[in-house]
Amino acid sequence: MLKTYFNSLIVLGFLFGSHASFAKESVNPNSVRNMFIDAVASDTVPGISVAVADKTGVIWAEGFGYADLENKVPMSPLHKLRIGSVAKVMTAAAMMRMVEQSKIDLDAPVTQYTPFWPDFHPTITLRQLAAHTSGVRHYKQGADEFLLNQAFSDIKSALALFKDEPLLFTPGTQHQYTTFGWTLVSAAMEGADKQRNFQQIMQQEVFEPLKLQDTVFDEQYPIIAHRARPYSFYQGQLLNSPQTDHSYKWAGGGFIATPSDVVRFAVSQLDETYLSATTTNLMFKKAILQDGSEVNFGVGWQIGFEPLKQNKAYQAKELQSMMNTMPHVVMHSGGSMGGTTMLILCTEHARAVTVVKNVNGDKSANVFLLALKTLSFYHNHH
Questions:
Q1: Phi/psi class of residue 129: alpha, beta or left (left: φ > 0; alpha: ψ in -120 to 50)?
Q2: What is the pLDDT of residue 321?
Q3: What do you get for the CA distance between the two ends of the chain, in Å?
Q4: Per-residue model confidence as pLDDT tens digits over 1-14
Q5: What is the pLDDT of residue 194?
Q6: Nearest-5° angle of CA 24, CA 26, CA 32?
Q7: CA-CA distance, 349 to 120, in Å (whole number)?
Q8: What is the pLDDT of residue 153?
Q9: Are the beta carbons of 132 and 141 closer than 8 angstroms?
Q10: Closest CA to 231 of 359, 120, 77, 48
Q11: What's the rounded Cα separation, in Å, for the pair 12 and 122?
């Protein structure tokens, strides 16, 4: 029962004592800080960490509540949390660097790079995988795939979880969110590179050039400094999250990071010394289905507030106004066992916010609203 419940959380979770670090901050952020103080006052929220950055660097980072509730360790900007599917946009950056290096063609059949992907499937491209239009499935409900605690020695063995199953639809004809599709992306990246494995590619194309020293693969056994403890809220109780192994989905949801690293990563996508403007524009352009209709994803990133503006939960005039005054945004959310994340990047002003709470299943603290209101505050005061 517990496993079935936790497995279902991923379906619901997508999009849905403090230590501070301030740098170059000229605005009194108390009005924003109070939101987070109120959020961690809830018995179902152990801790929350937030960071904001622009082209000058991180301008606000602060932890609220606890990184470790049992030992009363306060959440700090140094704590690394599970960022879930925000891993997808980091993987997208590495892939686009490989596109610029002419190692990858987004429109080539994925079998060109992964010969062990079955050829009985219709042709899939990396562009389709990155926009969730490939037909590769997401986690199976009731199959406990979100709770896997099995170590996979390589990506090829992880592909065995789904590679022989029929696609949900003909690639390019529909949109269906998938984490497993990104496992296939990482296999293609390895096949295209031929010399580096996925971990090495991420290290050399993302973590090292952007100096993300607090972003690492969420491996179970190594001692990782400042790793926050993950919690899950279940049937009225706050519990330690079930142990999970993320080696089957490194590319789609297997990193831990500080929010400061995540916002610096996001702003760097607009730095032409890292990715060319042409590449970034392609990454932030909505994908188009075969019938000519657009989907709200580009290469990895969700494009714009539109789906959220249509959400009944966000119809309040104040929220609609905030979204309307920041029309040029890209974003991604993350749902993990013991982590819920929201990243928003305003491409017009090169300003990003990331909010992460070290709990899943909690409904009292909405990370999207916290992120939106924080970004709106900086939008109005800078």
A1: alpha
A2: 97
A3: 49
A4: 344 333 333 333 33
A5: 95
A6: 105
A7: 46
A8: 80
A9: no
A10: 359
A11: 30
Contacts of 241 (CB under 8 A, 6+ apart): 230, 231, 232, 337, 338, 360
Note the pLDDT of residue 30: 81
Segment 322-362, tens digit of pLDDT: 999 999 999 999 999 999 999 999 999 999 999 999 999 99
User: Are 209 and 274 a contacting pair, CB within 8 Å?
Assistant: yes
- Give residue 6's pLDDT: 39
Joined together, the tokens standing for residue 350 give 């090169």
Token pair for 85: 């599917």
Q: How far apart are CA 319 and CA 313, in angstroms?
A: 10
Residues 152/247, Cβ–Cβ less than 8 Å? yes
Tokens of 194: 């031929």
Residue whose pair of structure tokens reads 């990715």 in the numeric block: 275
pLDDT given for residue 147 in this prediction: 75
Look at phi and psi of residue 178 and say left if phi exceeds 0, alpha if psi is from -120 to 50, else beta.
Answer: beta
Say if CB 264 and CB 210 are below 8 A apart: yes
Q: Which amino acid is at 246?
A: H
For residues 307 and 309, what is the distance between their CA atoms, to the nearest angstrom? 5
Residues 182, 169: Cα–Cα separation, whole Å: 17
Helices (H) and strands (E) in the chain, counts: 13, 14
216 has which bridge partners?
256
Dump pLDDT digits (tens) for 160-181: 898 999 999 999 999 999 999 9
Number of Cβ within a 10 Å radius of residue 9: 20
Structure tokens, 39: 């959020």
The CA dihedral of 206, 360, 333, 353, to the nearest 10 degrees, is -80
Residues of the chain with pLDDT under 50: 1-19, 21-28
Positive or negative torsion for Cα 358, 83, 250, 184 = positive
